Amino acid sequence: MLVYGIDFTSRPSKQKPITCLKCLYENRHLEADSLLEWTDFSDFEDALGSAGCWIMGIDAPFGQARRFVENIGWPMTWEGYVDRVAKMSREDFRQALDDYRLKRPPGDKEHRRVTDMAAKSLSPQKLFGTPVGLMFYEVAPRLLKANITIPSLHSGDKSRIGVEAYPGLLARHLIGRRNYKQDAKAKQTKVQYAVRQELHKLLQESNFKDTYGMSVNAPGSLVEDPTGDRLDALFCAIQAAWAWSKKKDNYGMPRCVDPLEGWIADATLAYSV
């Protein structure tokens, strides 16, 4: 099976491209094939439209929290509210989220999905720091337009499958909350490099293999990237391959996934509610 791991960004550039690791998954083994870096959205869109069979793990939220969708008055289907977002400009989307947040009481301005709470990830409304809200804005309409199948969210072309990945979840399972990456050059350290090396080594250990049910072969050169984007793309591919291995069991997702919100694909979240 062809597997793509995508470390996404809401504003791709030469300095911060969308990072894609193409892999092959067979007989419970994931083999890294080639690394691609896309400086605009066109190559990502081409990949989404490419002929199957493949599965793609993308590090970006595919959905919003039910509470937010209900409160803001968007259509009550994933396709409906993503289509609404697709018709907004980036600034209009940002303004809609800002206006919503301003009207909410302290401590109740941004909502997390059930999967975000399980994964301890950020609200997909967040626009600052790591702007996952803008990542949602850029990724979800493209997924809908490409008409790929997204388990628990959208039934499209069954030979092209997309799952939401979260590489930080896999990293946390292996090393806890130790930092292994940094975009700002001035803050990149030898300690982070050593942790990336450790992460790569831990992929060969029993803790990883027992949890994700696979072996992995990927070049050590991935750890040389101080931003961690290349290593994160590998982690996204691992999460996608794991989901594929569970395809007969709802791709490892709970049966009761909210069809507005979606779910993060990861062995540590398997079947949790």
Structure explained in plain terms:
The chain has helices spanning 41-49, 66-72, 78-86, 90-103, 114-119, 132-146, 167-175, 190-202, 206-212, 229-245, and strands spanning 2-7, 18-26, 29-38, 54-58, 148-149, 157-164, 215-217. The chain is an alpha/beta fold and 273 residues long. The chain has one domain (1-171, 228-273). Strands 5-6-4-1-2-3-7 form a seven-stranded mixed beta sheet. A hairpin with a 2-residue loop joins strand 2 (18-26) and strand 3. Helix 3 (78-86) crosses helix 6 (132-146) and helix 7 (167-175) crosses helix 10. The mean pLDDT is 97.
Mean of pLDDT: 97
Q: Within the largest sheet, what's the order of strands? A: 5-6-4-1-2-3-7
What is the CA-based Rg, rounded? 18 Å
Instruction: Outline the biggest β-sheet.
Output: 7 strands, mixed
- Count of DSSP-assigned helices: 10
| C-alpha end-to-end distance | 29 Å
| Category by helix and strand content | alpha/beta
Describe the secondary-structure layout.
Layout (H helix, E strand, L loop, with lengths): L1 E6 L10 E9 L2 E10 L2 H9 L4 E5 L7 H7 L5 H9 L3 H14 L10 H6 L12 H15 L1 E2 L7 E8 L2 H9 L14 H13 L3 H7 L2 E3 L11 H17 L28
Parallel strand pairs: 1-4, 3-7, 4-6, 5-6
Antiparallel strand pairs: 1-2, 2-3
Helix pairs in contact: 3-6, 7-10
Summarize the structure in short.
This protein has 273 residues and is of the alpha/beta class. It has one domain. It has helices at residues 41-49, 66-72, 78-86, 90-103, 114-119, 132-146, 167-175, 190-202, 206-212, 229-245; strands at 2-7, 18-26, 29-38, 54-58, 148-149, 157-164, 215-217.
